[in-house]
């Protein structure tokens, strides 16, 4: 490995580019094994620049170079696959033309130009454009692109590029045709894209609120057009929402989305030409679950929203990744909240944050939301940058209030449109618009780790005075850097003895219902409070912290029943369940017999049958913390088998105690009308599925029949998957029939078969490893397809904690072997899978040693990619 490949890139080393490339034109001659790219770059040295031009490349084969139209001989430049240097760089603007040749068919990394089921497509974020031609492949170099695409017409009747279509035609006598696209908006190279292939199209017209006519297109494999309706509907709603809520309109004549089946990530916001993992486009009742529908809606919105937050205003450098990602996640979360139930969406988002981001932040892969150094940028598309990044924006809005937040956002768009911005510039807009000093707030970007927050309550009944004292404890990394306190908004209410919120009078002018913490230790006093209230703190999860509020079980039961804040109501239920699961876990560790606290089991039964609560919300309350949630809360010396035992015990107790109610609800919640994907119908199915899973866990004699009926009667994918999961995970007699009939029904549909793989890989049972291993030989499995790998191997490693972390280490070895096998073909997918080891130090010593050995076997792999070596080195450090 060369020293360049091992280099650490640091934020403090940032320098403005010595050259700009205001315009580039590309002429792309597509052929499966021999694609020719002619790229003409208009280059301008920045003033006082005397340095030689050095461009990025990655695996390039250079055929020709021309300077101002004249072919250069080999003495005037130095070119390697990863670098081009022009020895005598002109001082005045000049053009450089490169002819490179590529083999898209052989590109298994899915970066740069590749083919997916015969369709040519590109992926350039973060640094894929340099696999197409030599360029200043950095986000602060913005260019206007003109792209001519030429291909065999029979092989690729559809030719798509960024921006607006300009021209197209046949090349007579050759069977080839071409299309020219022009994108008037300057953009960094990571937003470049082209697509060519045999694709079917769904179109719709949209008129922006200022009257611009936009043609919307969704392109998919022929025969799948009927599965694009939901994506199109989601796109239309996203466009309207961004106009109404953020005042942002679309800015081109066309907006195209293409679904491909081989894609490393979820989707990509290329200007005017979003490219999607087909998992986030295709949906119908036969093959997609309600969750899939929700994901399609959210991802379509996310990519569309990037048109402003990411594309019109992009990032100066990759350290600022959260500038576009955190903000855009926040925007898509708000969109989904408006489309569905806000509290249920918030609960789902917090679950995700806690299960993915908190563990990341507590282990060897922890990093600030804005990292200061990286070895491989692809490894920083993390839950911390995305989800914690979104939490920072949410806190900003809570602190400023909706109005000032919107003013700050408008200022950001006004000031930075067309530029590559930084976090400092972003924050300065909100400070400017609100008149607030946000210096302390901005520390959230700088330090890794989840803050701990303790709240102590003191009530003086005689004086009628309530005092809340908060103590922050930041991560060691933050403290080492001299930072002891963040600015933390704590949304709150005081619940009176009758369960209703007390009216609050505060004279300090802070945002209503929000306590703003700025000190390491800080008290707030409330007067005129004679009956002791119950403080409900961190409502809506107003900050990404771990709160310890000293609540008793009675307090939590009260909150579960009465809190006016739905989030804290849910939180109270989770806290009660967590405490009980922890107790059971300790008991299991000691080898004792496990018996459940029936007060909790009954309280959950009350929620189950409470018809005043909507279905989706009930389902969220009743879903116990996951195995990984418990592992995270236990923190060290984790025994994954004891966690599984604790959860099984509680699930069984709930199933037994409420057996009759559950069976009744499974029937009552069955909806025989036509399928509708809306939030209310989805909530009903979610609750029904949850009831079925508890019933299946009960071990009661009538259960097998109940589940068998659910398997046979399911009329849509949500119900079918719920029934299949109950049957397989509980090892019921109907499991085999359910698996076979699912396979017979969906064998030809890869995305549906992914669910079939996942169900089997996540069975919490010692057989899961052998099953998963043998499924790698199933005809529908494919080591080259990221979705298949994630559905089977990823699901086993992330969704089946007790079997991945088996005491004999066989789960670790299986995952490690898969990673070694994937790495040479697709290092990004391998590196992402490798992060499943990130919490290895928290296991009890036996498992930790086995996980470490598996990691070391990966580290010892010859020619390990930079992607994987980066992760493995940080894990073992
Ligand atoms: N920028 C994409 C998104 O968030 C994610 C992505 C990153 C896709 C890198 C591909 C490659 O929306
Ligand atoms: Zn994004």
TrEMBL record:
<dbReference type="InterPro" id="IPR042097">
    <property type="entry name" value="Aminopeptidase_N-like_N_sf"/>
</dbReference>
<dbReference type="GO" id="GO:0008237">
    <property type="term" value="F:metallopeptidase activity"/>
</dbReference>
<feature type="domain" description="Peptidase M1 alanyl aminopeptidase Ig-like fold">
    <location>
        <begin position="449"/>
        <end position="548"/>
    </location>
</feature>
<feature type="domain" description="Aminopeptidase N-like N-terminal">
    <location>
        <begin position="26"/>
        <end position="191"/>
    </location>
</feature>
<dbReference type="InterPro" id="IPR037144">
    <property type="entry name" value="Peptidase_M1_pepN_C_sf"/>
</dbReference>
<keyword id="KW-0378">Hydrolase</keyword>
<dbReference type="GO" id="GO:0006508">
    <property type="term" value="P:proteolysis"/>
</dbReference>
<dbReference type="Pfam" id="PF17432">
    <property type="entry name" value="DUF3458_C"/>
</dbReference>
<keyword id="KW-0482">Metalloprotease</keyword>
<dbReference type="InterPro" id="IPR035414">
    <property type="entry name" value="Peptidase_M1_pepN_Ig-like"/>
</dbReference>
<dbReference type="GO" id="GO:0016285">
    <property type="term" value="F:alanyl aminopeptidase activity"/>
</dbReference>
<keyword id="KW-0862">Zinc</keyword>
<dbReference type="Pfam" id="PF17900">
    <property type="entry name" value="Peptidase_M1_N"/>
</dbReference>
<feature type="domain" description="Peptidase M1 membrane alanine aminopeptidase">
    <location>
        <begin position="230"/>
        <end position="443"/>
    </location>
</feature>
<dbReference type="Pfam" id="PF01433">
    <property type="entry name" value="Peptidase_M1"/>
</dbReference>
<dbReference type="InterPro" id="IPR001930">
    <property type="entry name" value="Peptidase_M1"/>
</dbReference>
<dbReference type="Pfam" id="PF11940">
    <property type="entry name" value="DUF3458"/>
</dbReference>
<keyword id="KW-0479">Metal-binding</keyword>
<keyword id="KW-0031">Aminopeptidase</keyword>
<dbReference type="InterPro" id="IPR045357">
    <property type="entry name" value="Aminopeptidase_N-like_N"/>
</dbReference>
<dbReference type="InterPro" id="IPR027268">
    <property type="entry name" value="Peptidase_M4/M1_CTD_sf"/>
</dbReference>
<comment type="similarity">
    <text>Belongs to the peptidase M1 family.</text>
</comment>
<feature type="domain" description="Peptidase M1 alanyl aminopeptidase C-terminal">
    <location>
        <begin position="554"/>
        <end position="877"/>
    </location>
</feature>
<dbReference type="InterPro" id="IPR014782">
    <property type="entry name" value="Peptidase_M1_dom"/>
</dbReference>
<keyword id="KW-0645">Protease</keyword>
<dbReference type="InterPro" id="IPR024601">
    <property type="entry name" value="Peptidase_M1_pepN_C"/>
</dbReference>
<dbReference type="InterPro" id="IPR012779">
    <property type="entry name" value="Peptidase_M1_pepN"/>
</dbReference>
<dbReference type="InterPro" id="IPR038438">
    <property type="entry name" value="PepN_Ig-like_sf"/>
</dbReference>
<dbReference type="GO" id="GO:0008270">
    <property type="term" value="F:zinc ion binding"/>
</dbReference>
<protein>
    <recommendedName>
        <fullName>Aminopeptidase N</fullName>
        <ecNumber>3.4.11.2</ecNumber>
    </recommendedName>
</protein>
């Amino acid at each position: 490995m060369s020293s360049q490949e091992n280099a650490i890139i640091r934020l403090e080393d940032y320098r403005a580019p010595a050259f700009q490339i205001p315009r580039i034109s590309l002429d792309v001659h597509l052929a499966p094994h021999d694609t020719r790219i002619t790229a003409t770059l208009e280059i301008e040295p920045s003033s006082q620049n005397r340095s030689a031009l050095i461009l990025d490349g990655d695996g390039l084969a250079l055929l020709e170079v021309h300077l101002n139209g004249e072919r250069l001989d080999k003495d005037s430049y130095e070119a390697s696959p990863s670098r081009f240097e022009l020895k005598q760089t002109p001082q005045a603007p000049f053009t450089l033309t490169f002819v490179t040749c590529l083999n898209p068919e052989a590109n298994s990394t899915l970066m740069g130009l590749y083919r997916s089921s015969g369709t040519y497509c590109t992926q350039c974020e973060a640094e894929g454009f340099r696999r197409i031609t030599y360029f200043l492949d950095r986000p602060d170099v913005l260019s206007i692109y003109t792209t001519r695409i030429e291909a065999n017409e029979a092989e690729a009747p559809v030719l798509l590029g960024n921006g607006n279509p300009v021209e197209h035609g046949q090349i007579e006598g050759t069977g080839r045709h071409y299309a020219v696209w022009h994108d008037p908006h300057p953009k960094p190279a990571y937003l470049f894209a082209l697509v060519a292939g045999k694709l079917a199209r769904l179109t719709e017209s949209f008129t922006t609120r200022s009257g611009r006519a936009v043609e919307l297109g969704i392109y998919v494999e022929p025969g799948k057009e009927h599965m694009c309706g939901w994506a199109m509907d989601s796109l239309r709603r996203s466009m309207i929402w961004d106009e109404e809520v953020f005042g942002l309109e679309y800015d081109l004549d066309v907006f195209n989305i293409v679904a491909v089946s081989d894609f490393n990530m979820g989707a990509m916001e290329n200007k005017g030409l979003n490219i999607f993992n087909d998992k986030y486009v295709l949906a119908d009742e036969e093959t997609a679950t309600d969750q899939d529908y929700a994901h399609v809606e959210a991802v379509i919105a996310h990519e569309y929203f990037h048109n402003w937050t990411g594309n019109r205003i992009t990032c100066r450098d990759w350290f600022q990744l959260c500038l576009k990602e955190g903000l855009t996640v926040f925007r898509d979360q708000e969109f989904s909240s408006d489309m569905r139930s806000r509290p249920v969406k918030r609960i789902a988002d917090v679950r995700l944050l806690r299960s993915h981001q908190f563990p990341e932040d507590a282990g060897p892969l922890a990093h600030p939301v804005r990292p200061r150094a990286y070895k491989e940028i692809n490894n920083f598309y993390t839950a911390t940058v995305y989800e914690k990044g979104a939490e920072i924006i949410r806190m900003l809005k809570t602190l400023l209030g909706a109005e000032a937040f919107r003013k700050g956002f408008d200022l950001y768009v006004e000031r930075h449109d067309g530029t590559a911005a930084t976090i400092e510039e972003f924050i300065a807009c909100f400070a400017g618009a609100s008149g607030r000093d946000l210096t302390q707030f901005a520390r959230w970007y700088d330090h890794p780790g989840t803050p701990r927050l303790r709240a102590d309550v003191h009530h003086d009944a005689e004086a009628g005075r309530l005092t809340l004292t908060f103590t922050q404890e930041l991560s060691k990394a933050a403290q080492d850097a001299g930072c002891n306190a963040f600015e933390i908004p704590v949304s709150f209410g005081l619940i009176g003895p009758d369960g209703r919120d007390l009216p609050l009078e505060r004279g300090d002018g802070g945002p209503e219902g929000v306590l703003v913490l700025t000190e390491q230790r800080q008290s707030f006093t409330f007067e005129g409070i004679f009956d002791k209230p119950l403080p409900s703190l961190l409502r809506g999860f107003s900050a990404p912290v771990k709160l310890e509020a000293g609540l008793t079980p009675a307090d939590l039961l009260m909150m579960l029943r009465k809190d006016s804040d739905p989030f804290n109501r849910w939180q109270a239920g989770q806290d009660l369940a967590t405490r009980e699961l922890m107790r059971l876990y300790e008991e299991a560790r000691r080898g004792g017999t496990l018996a459940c606290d029936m007060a909790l089991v009954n309280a959950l039964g009350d929620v189950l049958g409470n018809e005043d609560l909507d279905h989706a919300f009930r389902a969220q309350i009743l879903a116990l913390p996951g195995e990984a949630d418990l592992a995270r809360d236990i923190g060290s010396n984790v025994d994954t088998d004891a966690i599984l035992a604790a959860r099984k015990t509680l699930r069984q107790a709930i199933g037994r105690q409420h057996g009759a109610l559950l069976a009744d609800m499974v029937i009552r919640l069955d909806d025989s009308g036509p399928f509708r994907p809306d939030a209310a119908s989805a909530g009903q199915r979610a609750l029904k599925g949850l009831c079925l899973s508890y019933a299946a866990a009960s071990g009661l004699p009538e259960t097998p029949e109940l589940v068998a009926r659910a398997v046979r009667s399911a009329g849509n994918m949500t119900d079918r998957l719920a029934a299949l999961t109950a049957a397989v995970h509980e090892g019921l007699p109907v499991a085999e029939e359910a698996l076979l009939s699912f396979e017979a029904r969906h064998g030809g549909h890869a995305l549906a078969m992914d669910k079939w793989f996942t169900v089997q890989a996540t069975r919490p049972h010692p057989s899961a490893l052998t099953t998963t291993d043998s499924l790698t030989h199933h005809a529908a499995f494919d080591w080259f397809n990221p979705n298949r790998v994630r559905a089977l191997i990823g699901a086993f490693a992330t969704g089946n904690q007790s079997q991945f972390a088996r005491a004999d280490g066989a789960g670790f070895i299986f995952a490690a072997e898969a990673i070694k096998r994937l790495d040479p073909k697709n290092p990004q997918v391998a590196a992402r899978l490798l992060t499943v080891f990130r919490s290895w130090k928290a296991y009890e010593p036996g498992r930790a040693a086995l996980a470490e050995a598996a990691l070391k076997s990966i580290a010892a792999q010859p020619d390990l990619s930079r992607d994987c070596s980066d992760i493995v080195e940080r894990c073992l450090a």
